[in-house]
Fold Transport protein.
Amino acid sequence: MLVVFALILLALVLFATEWLPIDVTAISVMVLLMVLEPWTQISPREGISGFASPATITVLAMLILSTGINRTGLVQLLGRRMASFAGTDRRKQLAATIGITGPVSGLVNNTPVVAILVPVISDLAHNGKTSPSKLLMPLSFASMLGGTLTLIGTSTNILASDIAAQLGAESPELGLHAFGMFEFTKLGAVVFAVGALYLVTVGVRLIPERVPADEDLVEEYALQEYLADVVVPAGSPLIGQTVGEALGDDDLDIDVLQLIRYGERFSDPLARKEIHENDTLRLRTSRGTLERIMNAEGLTFAGGPRTEDDLDPDEEEPVFVEVVVPSGSFLVGETLASSTFRQRYTANVLAFRSRGEVVRDRFESIRIRVGDTLLVQAPPDSLTRLVENEDFIVAHEFDDVEYRSGKIPFAVAIVAGVVALPALNILPIVVSSLAGVVAMILTGVLKPNELYTSVEWNVIFLLAGVIPLGTALQQTGAAALLGAAVASTATVLPVLGVLWVFYLATGLLTSVISNNASVVLMIPVAASAAQSIDANAFAFVLAVTFAASTAFMTPVGYQTNLFVYGPGGYRFSDFLRVGGPLQLLLSVVTVLGIAFFWGVGG
């Protein structure tokens, strides 16, 4: 037990600090469990069992199905209908955001839903003269609330169902079983309704307008002091050199955004462009570096752009966009210098937002994390490639992205079948979801080579890595020990109070580590506690599942919060201010709902 507790403590520290990527942490813990088999009782076969777990395979299949829906443009179509309905009415915008996101997140994995809708909602806000901050946090929260509506709404639900089934098979007296497709939909509907009501009344008032509605990206990122135009006068040593030779030294921390010659503007690629007398160079750099380069090269300061329109007055499509880094992106763990991002997309990064902090210079060596946001300048064709790449979430919609809209009927029918077959007890969810993947390939919704790029492999490795940790908790008796410790609170609390304690504990744990990891750790403990006090184990498992699926209090508690963190301009404390009361409200609603629908007695 001590060894398992030590490994759990190690995992918690690594998850919370992100010293290693969460999937690497999970696999490391899995390896340690097998290496320490005499103490953890986890054999190699049990250690790798997470890769063969129905939960892991189902999540993998659901990620592929979600990509199939994405490729048809169905969610974007719903988003545009929502935008046309909402117009410039802020209440309609908020209601439409929640009303579309929630139900869709119940049927399609909620993480990709938010990734798709970030640009739709950002544009809706700007076009409707509303601060994006007012809509993007509700978008993320609504997706979490919607994920509680069905078994397939989140990977957390699928994993919890699988753990419950395992516990039920090992200890039949617990009365646990795999969740049905709509088994907890009635509770999910109550949670969604209460959460939505909170967001449109109290929540929207608590969300600050971090990004003003009429502010462009140059102003939002306060880049005016970092953008400058310099003229190359006669006699400057830069004349005759290429841009790359003159200013391409990484130590200078200078980006040449444009070269303007007699009114004609040249953008990337500029490295091989020769500098002539009277050329104007548009630079991104700090004031100190600018002064040094002007003195050394005899350049003349000619002011600088103050807004996006000043940067590219002739462009119809924006060439400045925010790019959010999702999990699974090749940029995660890399730096801008090591990732070759600039070279791949002929793009200049003007600013870098990480965990609410904006960095405007010397960001080449910063290690990129999930949810970090880059302010990028690139030609329109490069931006289109960024939009079409699963490695990025571009916070602006582009009209020239092609979707397989003709395949929408096939995609809808396949997802309906995937949902209906398990609901009618015809096939298990793992079989129906895999059958859905095959159907999407056969009908042309997805191409075969897209199967592998559709999967967020870090999520799969996370699941596979943490599942044996839950097994070790059970087999060593650690779960029973913790369960008995929590169950001792029943001497001063009613059963409903103990259930509420589990909800709160899971919510707090999920705020600092992965929601899937918290489910793996808490469900065996909750089941043991329920058994100790002769309570309904299913009620306790459900409380843990719902608490892990609704992590509102921190931006790192749930992936969707990270997706909106940068584009919304939020601070860490904003999530606690808005999400804290919501989490507390839903803790009461969920616990009472469980008691009403299923009872808490044994």
Remarks:
- DSSP finds 29 helices and ten strands in the chain.
